[in-house]
Structures are given as structure tokens and as C-alpha cells.
Amino acid sequence: MICLKKVLSKFSLNLRERESLRSRRSVKFFSSFFLFLFLSSLIFPSKILAAPAIVHDLTNSSEYNIRIDGPITGGYLSYGGHLFADLDGGGKADDLVVVLPYASYNGRANSGSVYVITDSILNKLSGTGNTLDLLNSANYNLRVDGVATLTSGLGFAGNIASADIDGDGKNDLLLGESGTSNGSIQVAGSLYIIYNSTFGQYLSSTGNILDLATVSSYNIRIDGGPRVDNPSFGSLLSSNSVLTANIFGNGRDVVVSAVGGNLETGRNFNGGVYVFSNYLLKQFSGTGNVINLATSNNFTLRMDGPASNSRLGGPQENSIIAKDLTGTGYDSIIIPSKKPSPGLYFISSNLLRGVTSTSTGNILDLATSTNYSLFIQNSETSFVSIGPLIATDLYSTGKYDIVVDAYQASNNGKSQSGSNYIFPYSIYGQYLSTTGNVLNVSSSSYSLRFDGAFAGDWLGDVSNNHTDFFHLGKQDLILGGPHNHRTDGGSLDGAVYIIPNSKINSFSGTGNSLDLSTAGSSSMVYYGPSGTHLEYSVIADNGGFDGIMADANMAGYNSRTNSGSLYIIYNFPHSINLTSSGKDKIVGTVSAPNSVTSVSGVQYNYNSNDPTSSGWTNCSGTTSFTCTLSNFPSGSSNKVYIRAFDTNGSYTAQSSYALANFVDSTGTSSGPADPNCKSNYAYCINAGPNYLGSFSQIKANGAFVSTTSQVNHDDLHISVNQTSLDSLSSFWKTILTAGKSDVSYTMPKDNVPFPWSQGFNTVSEIYSISAASAFNGYPVLITDNPFTIQLTYESTKLNSHSPQDIKFAYYDNSRNKWMTLSAPTVVDWANHTIATTTKIFSLYALVYPSGSSNTPVLGTETKNNKPIVLQTPTIVPSPIQTSKPVNPPKQKHCFLFICW
After folding, report:
1. Per-block average pLDDT, block size 10, for the chain (900 residues)?
2. How far apart are CA 882 and CA 829, in angstroms?
3. In the list 258, 323, 509, 597, which could disulfide-bond 235, CB 3.0-4.6 Å?
4. Residues 206, 140: contact at Cβ < 8 Å?
5. What phi and psi values does residue 678 have, to the nearest 5 degrees?
6. How many CA atoms lie within 13 A of 349 on its CB side?
7. How far apart are the first and last CA of the chain?
């Protein structure tokens, strides 16, 4: 056991170096840092760190949506490893995978575990300040346990990924474990590929456990091979990076690092990067398959480090990227190397595809210049300890620009404050078509360099990412300083900076620098709670999760020291509802109940949803807004797009803009069409779940129908029309077919009879109240919930009857006869109207049949059988309201929207 510990200490390389840093940081780092601050205060007493534009402090629970807490003391939850992916088949990448690298379950010390928490758990939490304690098994769906002991285990150092490897349309899991032993080979390292068919069954319930010590728990295990100089020890496979790439054409090839390898004779710890084509992986079926890299025909391609201590593929987590740099549709690979000098190797797609996906054992030795396209090497003293890489289009050229982290750089007189460099495609791209090119790092080789705010910040250490955070159609940068102490003297709080694309593009030329201690250098910064070591931040807008994941791996909540926490902060989740539109005006609301920020404003734009357009115009209001339109463009058809923005300056995602269609056939603005009229619908919506508005009112010649959005599960278009006697013969056929030749309903054998032929004396006109699906125009005969009908009666037809005797009659097609509704009615004597509720679409009329009984009367009291008319309002849409009556009834009754 003691011997093995010595071996691990010697051969675990930078992974172990990072672990040992934890115990030294609180003493050596603090003493040197505060000595630096003290001397600085004497030399530069007037210098004050300028705060970023917006500061978010995660000690405040209102600044985050969910905090996930590690279950054990010393587990360091999320240290270098977490991601969002679609694992449950829901179609959105909103299932969380998070690493507990120092877990010791199953009696295996530091074997590590990986937790899967699906959106079914996360979506139950609304608002801010929620916590999920992983000690409670109900707070996760699946825990996958590692095998290795005496080392930081499964998922450590960011070696987790998700992709559809087996091609069944469902995402699988790739989990690295760098410390596993392969038979007699110590610290060989392993990569587990677990198909969705193996773990997916556990995602519909909670508290499930998958132990990788059981061969049925994985589909493929790739074991690292031995070192050339000492076959008893391995190469630490999957020690820093695991990713998938499109090298051979289907996007499911696997790339994995082995930074501890001695893969070439005489190169101690030269390291290597393996590629496994999807063709090779698909040769294996079922579970428990093992690929042993001691045999050369078990990999497709291996790229070898050029010198001793190259540690190719490292030294930091997430330090390899695969992107289509050449525009060929195939990925190139960029790999960092520490020796012969810190730098980056670019292996273009044409070199990678010099081998075929069906071949094995191919080797690209990077000591040979014809095996790489470009090497960017250090000639600037700050370009050291290369960490995570980013490839994204920062300058809107359609090409990838590269961001490189030099987390131990000491620019601006700040020791190890860290720096990040942008190498634009316009500089490096010219070298990708040939081989053996070398580009020295100098002020002419990069466009912009970011420098850490404090000495010892380690800016960018495993913390870089990018996304269109502000939803303005440009890529923004997210840079982390895990050792940041902010201005309040906190210990290892950590900071995450969000740099807007506009700031990046405000610099021109090359050799620019931006000190993050300068006011306005970043749009905002997130600080971790004291001593929590906030570092790894991921922001994504991938149709699933849009927001920030911030790792505070040294947090100690629930009385568990260094148990670690992961913060989830949603990026301005909101919805825009257009409640009405009319000539030159659009009115609506913005709802953002789960946002940690507030709605700041709303904008509209004519005929363009381009987020970078200069045509966006501010509306008035925030959560309730009015867009007053001006300079409306002429034309037969126009669109108005609506978006909102929050106090961070983050806008509505382009795919979620609200839209109002305008129809203008005369060439001059007539204002917007009804927002309930959708271009792909057969009719405008005036009832149903997608109706925009609190209620709908349809009127026609003395008839009135009122509905709500809850009246039916489908969107409806309701029509109200006065019906002539001549039209009764064709009425039913008309409303049933509605122009649809394929509709077959039972038609009445005879024409619709006149009501009085069946004993009903009409005191109103006959009205047809019909409905059709707003989407496809097919007729609808009944609703889920009642709607309100109000008809006008003719007092001259009462023939000494009281309005209280009036009933609603409707035509029942199945019986070919007129029937009366049993629902209560309400009479308004002043306006000669009667209202009731129904769920039936048909012909309606007000009648007084024989044997009529009294009905309640709205706004009246009867006295000696003579009505006393009280003050009532003009006809209003439901709910019908009246002023307080004289001598009111002792009891008030209500149904649906009507009270009396």
C-alpha cells in the first residue's frame, strides 16, 4: 500500500499537482498574496480596484436559482466536471451531469462518482435560492460509481462527455477515470462508454446506482496501455480531456488524452492523444467490452508528444478542442503541449484523414514537422501553463478564433494573475493548408490579451467558455479567476467575468490588452462565497439550458467541509404575451418569475428579427408595455417583432421573439392585424388555450358570445350570425362541412323546422352560433367548458308574458327538434337582454313555451308583478356587472361570470 502511494505520487503528474495545491493554497498562497497587498498599499496607496459594471454575489440566495450541494465532506463536488445534455430523450439538453471526484462509495477510497439529475427534478424548483442536497437520494436520478482507489476518481478533471456514440438517436455517457489499473499496469487509466440503453432505464425514478465495478454497467471500457520504459505503469488515459469529434464524417469519433504516457522511447511523460473512430467502436455490442491499448490495433490514431515532459493533451482540464477550422466539414484538432516550450499543435483535418476510419494503429509523431500544420510556441514570457481552449467566432467572419489560457502569466506587474489570448483566424488560418509552420507568440500574433484583476487570480484556470450570453447575435466570453479575492479580502472566493462581444470588438489591430481590474472591462462579474473557490463556469444556449453553471468546489454547506457546490443561474427566463394590438399600437406583458434579474425594457422592430439590427425601437413600460408604432413601412404585408431585455442587458433569444402580423393592402399603415391571427392557421383564434387576451367577445346584430382561454382544449374560431328563415334548410350542412369535402356527419333527414312548429314562440331573431378549429377549419360541435350567450328579446312579442318566462331554445340535430336549455338565465330589463351558459354550438333563439317558470332578473326587483328598472350599465363583456340595486335581494347568486 505504501509503495503504491509513492507510485501514485510520482506518476499522477499535473492532476496530483493540482490536488496538492489545495493544501498549500491556504498557507503559502495567502501569506505571499497578502504580503503583496501590503507592499502594494505602501507603493500605490491611492490605487483602488474599479468594480465591473454589474456585480453578482452568490452569498445572496436571490442571485442564483439552484444550489446543488455535495453529499460528503471532502468530496469537492463539480471540481472540473459538469455538463448539460439530453439524456432522457426530452429533446432538450437540460439534464445535468455533475462530478463528485473524491467520493468513496463501495469501500473504494476516492474512486469518484458522477450524478445525473434530469430536468424532471430541476424543473420542480421555481424562483431563486433553491437547494438540492445530494445526500438525499430523491434529489438525483442516477449515481455512477467509479472503480479506482487512492486517487481522485471518476470524472475528475473534466473528463466527461455526452454524445450519441451507438447511433440510436439517444445520447450516451463517456466517463474517464485516470487512476484505474489495468491488470498489472498501475494508473493505466480507463474511459467508460455507457450507452443510453444501459443507463436510460434509471432516469424515470430517483436514487438509482450504477457501479462500474460490474461489467454489465458499461458497454465499452478502454484501458490505457503501459509506458515504454516501465511496463508496470500506464499512461493515465482520460486524465484531462474526453470529447467527441467529426474526423471521419459521422461526428461520433472519440478523442481522449493520456498525458502521463511514455509512448516513445526516451521521452519521459511525453503524453499522447488517442482517436477512436466510430467504425472501430461499433464493432462491439452488448456490455462489458474491453479495449486494451497495450495492443496497437485497438485504436485508430495516436498523436504522440514531441519531447520528454510534453504532457501532450494537458496540463489542464478541457484542454483539447476539435472544430472544423478548414471549412471542409471535418474537424481539425488543437492540442496543448508543455515541451519543448509551452504551445499549441494544430493538426488539420487533411492530416487526420490521411488515415482511414477502418485502419488501426496509426501514429502521428509530433516531433516530425510534417505531422502537424502549425505550432504556436512561446516567445512571450507570460505564455506559460496552457489551460483550457476555446474556439468560437468572435469577429463574425464565419471562422473560428482561438482563445488560449495562460493561467500562471504575470502581466501588468501582478504575479500569476493569469492571462487569456485571442488568436484570430485571420492570423493563424493561413498556416493550416501546409505543414511544419511555427508561429511565435508576440504582440503581432494575437489580437487581444485579458489580464487577471489580482495577483494570484489564475485567470482562466479551467474556467473559460463562450456563448451569445446577451442574445445579440454575437459570441461573448466567460473567463474565470478561481483564486480571485475581490475587494473585500475574501479568501479564494473566485470570480467569473462575462466579457461582451462589443468590448472585444472595440479593439482593432493586434497586441491589445485589457486588465480586468479596469472599470468597464467586463459587463458583469459573479463572486463566490468566501473560500469557495468559484471557478468552472459554463454558459450555453443549446435549446435546453441557457445560463451559468458556477463551480464552488470548496464550499462547505450542511456542516460538510469542502463538500462542494454547483450554482445554476438561469439567464433571464421569460415570456412575452401580446394582449392586444390595434392601429399604431401593440400592448403586452413580460413574465419572468424565475429570473434572478428584473425586466428592464421592451423593443420592437419592423420586418426584421436580426438581433444586431439598428432598427430596434424602445417601447414604454417593462413588465407591462405599450409599443407605439411610428414610420410604419408601406406594403401589403408587414411584421413587427417584439423582444425584452433585463438589467444585465441580456435580451430575448431570437427564437422567442413575439410577433404581430400587419396586413396593409392600401400601401399605408392601418395598424396591426389581430395577434390571434396566425399565418399557418385557417382562422383567427377567438377562444382556446392560445387565445391572446383574458376573454373574447363576439357580437352580431343583438347577439353576444363571451369566452375565455379555458373554454376548450383546442383553439377555436367562433362565429355568431343572424339566420334568415330561408337559410334554415341549408344551415346544418353548412356549419358541418365548412367547406371540407372529407367531413362526414349525420345530416338531418328534413330541413331544420321552425321553432313555432314545435310549440316555441320566438321573442328574438334566430342566431347561428358555430365554431371551427382555428388551425385546420374543421367544425367543433361542443366545448370542454361553458361559454356565455346573451341575446336580445323583442318586448313587442311578449304577449303579456314576463321576461322571466323566457327560455333559451337550441336546435338538437340528433333529435331533429328544438330543445330548451336547463341552465339558469339572467334578465336585464333595461337593455332587453337575457344571458345563460352553454357548451353547445347550434341554432339559438329566445322563446316562451307554455308552463314557463320565473327566472332571476338582473338589476330589478318585482313589485306587484311590475318591474322596477334599476340603474344598469351598458352591455359589457362577461363578467356582467351592475351597480348596487335598490332594495337588493337578501342573497347573491353567481354562475360562471354572471352574478345576481
Report:
1. 38 40 36 34 35 78 96 89 90 92 92 95 95 98 90 76 94 91 83 97 97 97 86 77 92 88 78 94 96 89 90 74 94 90 92 94 95 86 68 95 88 86 96 96 93 83 82 91 63 81 96 89 82 59 75 90 93 89 80 95 93 95 91 73 95 90 50 66 84 73 81 88 68 47 43 81 88 88 91 83 87 85 86 90 85 41 31 29 30 34
2. 12
3. 258
4. yes
5. -100, 145
6. 17
7. 87
